[in-house]
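User:
Can I borrow your eye for a moment on a structure tokenisation matter? Would you put together a sequence-and-structure record for a protein of your own picking? Please set it down just below, with no commentary around it:
AI:
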Amino acid sequence: MIGKRIKGDLANLYRLKKKDSTAVSTILKTKWKVVELNGKPIFQPKEMKNELFLQLNSENQYAAFAGYNNLMGE
């Protein structure tokens, strides 16, 4: 919600900043390596040569590698 303060038990965990247009272009088409999930480090077997990643290809498309599966969608 625009202009509304976040309330509740987890409100102190939110840090919101206004993004400029250059920040969005930096996020898009960048391959983000997954290193932690739910506060726990990701275990990746040595035989798995590709790193786990998430990539935002445009404002409504993504690609990801999650273990032995590729994911793509909108």
